[in-house]
């Protein structure tokens, strides 16, 4: 007897989604291998049309490059590793094993299938990115579907019904955005992306089914993963402490929105005259003298040092450090404010940088560029702004939670890292001194706004000594206490 036909129908649809995804992937694989003409025609036509549209818009290229990193193997591997550590700290070893096994599937399936199928990547008229290896299926689409889907299933018990639905939509949008970024950058066909998604759904279904069987064998009831998560009893261990007040959320959203507009206006007001004066290469505050002097005094040693400095401020490193910082903040505080503070601070920096760079359109210094042509303009420096904001935000969170001696370490890092990145970007001929000034204006204005409106340290501060009582071994606990860590 069926008590609720609507619910039964939804459950049936969820169960059917996995074999349907597997069948679609199998059909696409056969069509790709057979070079089925209708599929080839659609794939080639869409790749050419998107390439013509995207290649003409440097800001779109930059945005797609950022989004595609969210599905890259390096970022996803770091994300899985950090979450696995958090799960281990919370003694949720079954969930940790599920995440590691599920994530390993993406690392194994992607290269194996690409090599077996052997499809070449798109050849477009105006290349804006390069992909390694073969084309089918899309590894970024596969990895994003598997990792973000697994995280959704793991953390679902920590969310209310409304929050779970919102997060499900957000994960879906993110997965679609990663897939679209591969199309927009011209490194995958549409069938590659759809194939990656379908394979990801099938693999998630297999690992989730295996997890449910394990629960039953150990005397636990089977769950509805999309509605309850994998382990409903883990909800208390997975959720952060405290629920954000709606009035606080509205205040933060309104305040940061106004601040974003004001900071953007300040950047445009400063950057536009600089871009127009002598074609962007006037000598205001050494904008001509400094890049030329640095270019004339390049040495192999400083070339290497500046290369490392540039990498320290690039998207990959900023994402990796930000991810670790967010995970540690969640572990230590179990509160939403520090994590939201980090997310809003870094996302705001990215959008402010892209918007102001697209509006100002300042030329790069007229010296040899060691990092080649870049899709964004010179003002402001995204590397420097991201570095300032990331390490300053970490210092804001860390200083109230560590001993007096350690505070100076976080402050020193927040000062020295941006100086290194700024020098490196000017040394390599990528930025003027006033571009760095623009980054400082961006960082100062935006960090002031996020600290004021989000108030990341408003909740009771849990020190590292307090958290160590729960997660650190006795010997290390004694060391941190005696050393005033």
TrEMBL record:
Query: Which Pfam family is one of those matched by this entry?
Result: PAP2
Task: Give the stretches traversing the membrane.
Answer: 12-32, 66-88, 95-113, 142-159, 166-187, 193-211, 252-275, 315-332, 339-360, 380-399, 406-424, 436-454
Name the PANTHER family for this protein: AT30094P (PTHR14969:SF13), SPHINGOSINE-1-PHOSPHATE PHOSPHOHYDROLASE (PTHR14969)
**What is the name of the protein in this document?**
Phosphatidic acid phosphatase type 2/haloperoxidase domain-containing protein
Q: Which InterPro entries match?
A: PAP2/HPO, PAP2/HPO_sf
Task: Cite the Phosphatidic acid phosphatase type 2/haloperoxidase domain residue spans from the record.
Answer: 93-208, 341-451
Per UniProt, the keywords (alphabetical) are: Membrane, Transmembrane, Transmembrane helix
